[in-house]
Write the structure tokens for this entry.
Amino acid sequence: MEPPSRMEFTNVNGGRVDCTVRGNPLPTVDWLAADGGSITNILGIRHVLGNGTIHFPAFEAEAFRQDVHWAIYKCSAVNSVGAVVSRDVTVRAGMSTERNLPSSLSAVRFSALFSVASRHRRHPPRILRRSCRRRPYE
């Protein structure tokens, strides 16, 4: 099963991308960065699991890494018969800010995800759409 083409999450919740493969013999799953190189675990930031999942744990805003949280990945499956590479998976982590209000008011969490576009990878992205949600703090 091919992974989704886009995965968005907030730094408060974290996220994951799954790549499920089948084959005979059973293929080996590997995740690739946009440049085609294999990705590795980054302690507390990105965990590449042996079952074909990339797990992005919750993180502090200061720990945001563009090469991890705002990146393109591909899933690769290889066995003795051949190899196949998935479509691009665009990963976007948005920042969530928790605001504590006076005790007479409930706390509110604001989440924002940004959709961006860039004409070339070397140019900084420009914001196309911004969406914010306000929901009760849990």
Observations:
- The first strand starts at residue 6 and ends at 10.
- The helical segments are 66-69.
- Residues 35 and 73 are 9 Å apart (CA to CA).
- The two ends are 34 Å apart (CA to CA).
